[in-house]
Amino acid sequence: MKKFFLSLLCLGVMITSCNNDDDTVIEEEEIETPDEEIVEVDIEVQNFFWQTLNLYYFWQGDVPDLADDRFDTQTAYEEYLSENEDPEALLENKLLFSEDRFTFYSDDYTTLVNSSAGVSKSNGLQFGLGRIEGTDEVFGFVEYIVKNSDASGKDIKRGDLFVGVDGQTLYSDRDNPDDNNLDLLFGDNDTYVLNMAEIVNGGISPNNKNVSLTKFEGLVEDPIHVSNVITSGDKKIGYLMYNQFIAGSEDEMNAVFAEFLSQGVNELVLDLRYNLGGRGSTAAVLASLIKGTNTSDLLFKTIYNAKLQAEFDSSFTDNFFVSTTGTNDNNSNAALNTLNLNSVYIIATEGSASASELVMVGLAPYMNVIHIGGTTVGKNQGSLLFVDDPENGNIYSPENVDDINPNVQWGLQPIISRVENSAGFSDYVDGLVPDIELSEDITNLGILGNADEPLFKRAIQEITGISGKSKSEALIPANLVSSSKLHDPRNATLLLNNSVPSTKIPLVEKK
């Protein structure tokens, strides 16, 4: 495979270009510009956005302003960037494809790094938001509480309801979703008071109870929320609730499966109902713990834009099952304690996306995947974090933080690929439809990991052969308007850290 060098266009000083045949960098003549009074515009951020998307963006060929021949000269390119003084407006209005739902960015790249590592400023309350039937009013319900958080020390638990914040009733206009006051929950206010509620005569009513919660920096959530083993007849059923595919959690997952093996587990219920994604390499470890460690079996393939796809060989596109936890992020590279199952029961809902969907889709050609819950988000795309670091292809790496342009601390995480399984299946942008449809019931959310929790109970029924209804039996179903996770696209990620270009590809050349 050829190697290339990536260098940013010099702003009004020098152009560098690449000779693809001998990998040498050629300096061309300095461009002379007429002497005239020019109002200078700082275009470093705009330049970083354009260069990154022109090279890596999955839809580069569908965005006219990202075309390789969009600008004839360096001067024309700089003038274009200068005319777009607001980098966010440039990105949103001219550089992103209209069908892109999942590209995101921040003016501080460290917030994106922390998000992918499960570190956040949070009070530890994970909640869903539904609509009170026949109104624009919104109610919240507690999905779970993060361990060692502010909420974990307060009088609030899974299944509790709330209808207001700081005395204001929550609402979201059905005809105009932008008209809402949900920023009371998602805004910059570090402390707020939840106005609690309860079920009364089949409806949701305030109960005069209030709970004050405060967000703190640096909360680290353990992605393994619950694991246990249930015995039912001759079935030993392992249960794992995994809430984010975080690199560095592979050894911990492996230990859970070692416990499953020691207890003779022969069936598995994997609960991904609140898992919006994360690392593709971590998804490969989880899939291998379930199915097996034949490293010649293809788990998924990544498809890039035409420009990159033409340069990549299978080492960049093919992702196989694995046999160890790996060495990344302080993992021990331990052999996997795989269950070698022929079937798996996966709980997934409208709160499941990306790497969660990838595990389901990737396993499907090799085993029977029984999906219980609701239709998933539908994210068949991978992304990567980029920073203004041209010497390293703009790809973020913690080892190269000193190389990041000190004037540009932005982080950009665009969609760079589509994923498909070993059978070539990739068409799930509308979500994965469950085999057994069952919504969470606000009146009976149950205890996660308990055999009587409705979705887990339904999985046990399927495993043991006890018949159950296939449609939702919920009295008040959790029809999500939003949630503490879904409101932020940064949570729905498939990070392709093990399947991205590590060489430097040339930027479009100017004359």
Automatic annotation (TrEMBL):
This is C-terminal processing protease CtpA/Prc, contains a PDZ domain. One of its GO terms (biological process) is proteolysis. The keyword Hydrolase applies. Residues 208-439 form the Tail specific protease domain. GO terms for molecular function: endopeptidase activity; serine-type peptidase activity. It comes from Maribacter ulvicola. SUPFAM superfamilies: ClpP/crotonase. PROSITE patterns: PROKAR_LIPOPROTEIN (PS51257). Coiled coil: none annotated. GO terms for cellular component: outer membrane-bounded periplasmic space. It holds the Pfam family Pept_S41_N. The keyword Ribosomal protein does not apply. Keywords: Hydrolase, Protease.
